[in-house]
Amino acid sequence: MSDQMQRITLASRPNGAPVAENFSLQTSALPVPGPDEVLVKLHYMSLDPYMRGRMDDAKSYAAPVAIGGTMEAGAVGEVIASNSPAFQPGDFAFGLFGWASHGCLPANQLQKLNPDHGPITAALGVLGMPGLTGWYGLNEYGKPKAGETLVVAAATGPVGSMVGQLAKRAGLRTIGIAGGAEKCALAVDTFGFDACLDHRAFADASALRAELATACPNGIDIYFENVAGKVLEAVIPLMNPHGRIPVCGMISWYGGAQGADATLTAPMIWRNILVKFLSVKGFIIMNHFDRYPDFQKEVGPLVANGDIRFLEDIAEGLENAPAAFMAMLKGGNMGKQIVKLV
Amino acid sequence: MSDQMQRITLASRPNGAPVAENFSLQTSALPVPGPDEVLVKLHYMSLDPYMRGRMDDAKSYAAPVAIGGTMEAGAVGEVIASNSPAFQPGDFAFGLFGWASHGCLPANQLQKLNPDHGPITAALGVLGMPGLTGWYGLNEYGKPKAGETLVVAAATGPVGSMVGQLAKRAGLRTIGIAGGAEKCALAVDTFGFDACLDHRAFADASALRAELATACPNGIDIYFENVAGKVLEAVIPLMNPHGRIPVCGMISWYGGAQGADATLTAPMIWRNILVKFLSVKGFIIMNHFDRYPDFQKEVGPLVANGDIRFLEDIAEGLENAPAAFMAMLKGGNMGKQIVKLV
Asked: How confident is the model at residue A260 (pLDDT cuts 50, 70, 90)?
């Protein structure tokens, strides 16, 4: 085996949308695992919108990636050396290894995977953090009730598609929002949404809202928030009394661009919260990993038997991760974005 | 007794802050109570910020007051005629009679008062809707824990002073915000706040925030929202992870003026909700009157023995209600605003 590894570091902080120059491909010596550590040759890594936030030097729930530091990511791969009795070479594991060809972590930070239970990429999406995010946020904060109406954007992404499918199973009317006719067809045909609106087809939030009002004749009870921006502006006046808004992301605002959303004001948000008695709850899934076993027990079998479907968009090669990431932030992916590393 | 009554109606809808011309004093015949109805000669009526919202023709939790309709208010007075066995002339009662000298309502919409249990004005403030609002919002959505820090504005008003005193009793650090040095002294000396900041002493939200940060060395866990605007802008970046924001009002935005708050953007609110895992919950107390007996049981004795203190600002005469209301919206009152009618 080679004694070298590649990783992608943060070369500079983006100003708005990331550009290629913000990333740097570095080669370094393969680490030697210390006591209780495990060295893994990575096969697949995950690309997720939250990584955009880590590129900014802003106070958040997690420290930003340092300039010169390895970009963060969850990844899966094969153990090639282990100083822990819990892992043997040939085992497969998931961990927060970063954008890299190899990774070395303490055994207690890894999760062993069984490749017989399905593709190991599922640990990055439908049965990983995005799936858990959708399941936890919907149930814990969305509190779905049969007969209600749910709206979620990025409807064909790994969070939105999980939310939509679980809500449908719970007896809700599910309305997706996605970018482009192809994704909208996918949302309805593959993920069972009752309808899906193409946000690109509407000039502004008012136009999108008018169509949403038609698609949601009884109003909106749950808006699962992962995009903010124009979609939030369209949705919030349509919320029903006692509505719930779990907030797990705001991809359209990560770049800091706000010009297009200037008509969505703070008073408009606050007034709707007050007069509709809304519950708005921010969360990140890393605070709730203790619920992973419950999630796996409930959703794992549904994925295995095909009742919960998922879609992956796989880019090839670590060196192409920045381009795939930049495209994903603009909605260029079709399903969960993954990078194949070997 | 006179066979006439006075009431104040909505003559026109305000554009921003209400003006005298929006109100009209009308004289009409005293109503004759129908079956099961009770006629009450009103002694005191309440003025509350929510009434500003009722003057707008905007979709809200309650229908707006119609042009020519009587302004809404809770009021207390003495029964002068009754077609219900539940009330006798001479009894005292609370009801939503409106801005008027007399009122006639079905007996089941009235609450009998016992004047031996303290001043009947308490039913309009500390033991009425404002007190219940503070008690319910703090406990149900604020979820106070000893050692935490709470911030509330309008700290000497009937909601803010209830919230501050209950939070202090629960072991929290309590920081009030009020308009003017006199109110700030009152907040500390009478209502036991650990500190109270005069929002008028700060040119903008940044300056207020800097002082708040000093007063809240461990950050803010609960922001009880009743004013919005500059205070919200100052507070929200200081919220701690897992913070709670019960929202019962936004007095600074009722007039629609937003220029001074232009730096408080929708993304700033949404981002803080996400990265601090905040819980934001709008509510109005009329949805929770079922909790009134619990409130009365817990807080009634505390008011009776002086552990919970309250302050009333009493204007004289129905004809002066509009002026008192307009002044209250600008913070001109000192304590719960009431109008004495007889």
From this structure: very low
Q: Rounded mean pLDDT of A212-236?
A: 97
Q: Find the helix or strand (DSSP H, E) in which B30 lies.
A: none
Q: Are A341 and A99 in contact (CB under 8 A)?
A: no
Chain A interface, mutation test: which of B280, B283, B286, most A Cβ atoms within 10 Å?
B280
Residue pair A298/A135 in contact by the 8 Å Cβ criterion:
yes
The span from the CA of B165 to the CA of B152, in Å, is 11
- B232 to each of A114, A221, B204, how far by Cα in Å? 50, 26, 12
Whether A276 contacts chain B with CB within 8 A = yes
Residue of chain B nearest A241, judged by CA positions: B61
* pLDDT tens-digit series, residues B174-189: 999 999 999 999 999 9
Across the interface, do A276 and B282 touch by the CB < 8 Å criterion?
yes
Among residues 228-267 of chain B, which lie with CB inside 8 Å of chain A? Answer: 228, 232-233, 241, 247-250, 253, 258, 261, 264-267
Contacts B258 to A, Cβ<8 Å: 265, 267
* pTM recorded for the entire structure: 0.91
Residue A258 has pLDDT above 70, yes or no: no
pLDDT of residue B260: 47
Cα separation, A251 vs A53, whole angstroms: 9
Instruction: Report DSSP letters for B160-195, one per residue.
Output: HHHHHHHHHHTT-EEEEEESSHHHHHHHHHTT--SE
Residue ranges of B 44-73 with Cβ closer than 8 A to chain A:
59-61
* Chain B: residue whose CA lies nearest to A58: B275
Give the pair of three-digit tokens for residue A127: 């049965």
A265·B266 Cβ contact <8 A: yes
Q: What SS3 class is residue A28?
A: strand
Q: Are strands B102-106 and B92-95 parallel, antiparallel or unpaired?
A: unpaired
Which residues does chain A have within 8 Å of residue B280's beta carbon, measured at their own beta carbons? 273, 278-281
Which positions in chain A touch B253 (Cβ < 8 Å)? 267, 270-271
Q: Within 10 A of B104 (CB to CB), how many other CB atoms are there?
A: 19
d(CA B219, CA B239) in angstroms, rounded, equals 6
In angstroms, how far is CA A319 from the centroid of its own chain?
A: 21
For residue range A285-320, list pLDDT tens digits in order: 999 999 999 999 999 999 999 999 999 999 999 999
- What ipTM was reported for this prediction? 0.90
Element (H, E) at A301: helix A292-304
For chain B, list the domains and their CATH numbers.
4-125+310-340 (3.90.180.10), 129-285 (3.40.50.720)
Token representation of residue B160: 């803010």
Query: Which amino acid, B224?
Result: F
For residues B43 and A213, what is the distance between their CA atoms, to the nearest angstrom? Answer: 47
Could you tell me the two tokens for A288?
A: 């709730």
Residue B255 pLDDT > 70: no
Return d(Cα B38, Cα A153) in angstroms, integer.
Answer: 54
Do B309 and B165 meet the contact criterion of CB atoms below 8 Å apart? yes
pLDDT at A135 over 50: yes
Flag if A282 and B284 touch (Cβ within 8 Å). no
Instruction: Give the CA angle between residues B271, B274, B277 to the nearest 5°.
Output: 135
